[in-house]
What we know:
It contains twelve helices and 18 strands. It is an alpha+beta fold. The protein has two domains: 4-88, Orthogonal Bundle (Helix Hairpins), CATH 1.10.287.40; 105-407, Bira Bifunctional Protein, Domain 2 (BirA Bifunctional Protein, domain 2), CATH 3.30.930.10. A hairpin with a 4-residue loop joins strand 12 and strand 13 (331-342). The N and C termini lie far apart (53 Å).
Amino acid sequence: MLDIKFIRENKDLVLAAAKNKHREIDVDRLLLVAEERKRLRTELDLLNQKRKEAANARDNALGSQLKGELEQIEKDYADADKEFVSLMIKVPNIYSADTPVGEDESGNKVLRQWGEVPKFDFEPKEHDEIGKALGIIDTETAAEVSGSRFAYLKGPLALMQFALIQFVFNKLIAKGFTPVIPPVFIKPAVQNRMARFMTPDDHYMFPADDLMLIGSAEHTLGPIQMDKTVSEKDLPIRLAGYSTAFRREAGTYGKDTKGILRQHQFDKLEMESFTLPEDSLKEQEFLVSIQEEILQALNLPYQVVIICTGDMGFPDYRQIDIETWMPGQGKYRETHSADHTGNFQSRRLNAKVKRADGTTEPLHMNDATAVAIGRTLIAIIENYQQVDGSVKIPEALVPYMNGLTEIRK
C-alpha cells in the first residue's frame, strides 16, 4: 500500500492514478479517518501513561476512572483503524512517468520488436490442430475426465515441458537466482497482503480450510519476506519459482477455448526479486532482459510492450509485457509479464531492509515471468511447424530432449 503521508502530500497524483487505473477511492474520507485514528492513538498512549502513573501512586479511584475512559477510546480507535485499513487497501499504486495513460489494452505501446516473423510456403496451422494430429495434445479426453480448459500433454510435448524448465532454470541459476518450488495453496489473508485481489470468480477457494490455490508462483514467492527485515548487504534476493497455477477463467467464457492457450491449470516459472529502492527500476529492466534472452535462444519472434494505466495491475508501478508471435493465429500473444511494484507490496507484507546506518525501510519488489510453459509450447509448435505436419525442436532444447530433434506422428 502507499504511505499515508505520501497520499496526504500527493493527493492529486493518487487521485489521477486511481482514475486512470479505473479504481474508485475516497481520499477525502481516508485522510479524515487517518487524522482521527492518529488523534485516538495519541489519546490512547496518553491515557496508558496516566494509568501507569496512577498505579505507581496506588491511586485506585483514578485508575478505575482511567480504565473506563481507556476502554471507550480503545473501541473508538479499533473502529477508526478498521475503516482506515478498508479505505487504504482500495488505493492502487501510482504509476511511472513513462507509463502510457489509456483506457484498456488498446493504449499499450510497443517499445521494440525482435526476430523475423516466419514465412511459410503453406498455410500455417494453430497449435491445437497440430498437437491433435501428432497425438501430443489431448483436450477431448481431458474434458471427459476433468471438464473444459484442461489438457493431457503427451510424449515429446511432455518431454519438451521439462526441457524448457531445465533450460530456463540453468540460465537463471547462472545469473544468481535461487531455485524454489513454492506451495500452491495460500491463505487469503496473505494473498490480500500481496495486493493481488482474487475473488471466487477468479480463483479456486477452499473456505473450510481458509486456503486458495495460487494463480502464479509469485503469490507465494513474495510472502517469503513477509514480516522479515533483511540486511542491506544481502540484497538483491532473486528467486526462481516453478509451480502449477490455477485460475477459474470465469470471465472468459467462449474466449481462447481451443488447445492449451487459456487453461484452468497451467505451469510457470516465475522470477521474484527483492532490492534496494534505488535499484528496483534497473532490476525490472534486468528481468526483462532475461525474458528476451530466453526467447532469443528459442528463436521466437516477439515484441516488448509497456502496459497502459487501464490495463496494468493494481499494485504495479510499471508493467512490461512481452508478446510472442503465433503464426497459426497470425498475431502476437502475451507470454511474459514483468511487474515493478516498488514498495507497494512490501509495505503490506512488512518486508524491510536494514541499511548500513541502522535505519529500516520497505524493500522494493519485482516479479516477472521466466517462462509460461503452455504459451511457450504453443509458440514453439506454431513457429517450428513443417509442411508435413511435424514440428522441429529448437536447438536450445535439443540437449534436454532425449535425442529427439523433431516431433513426428
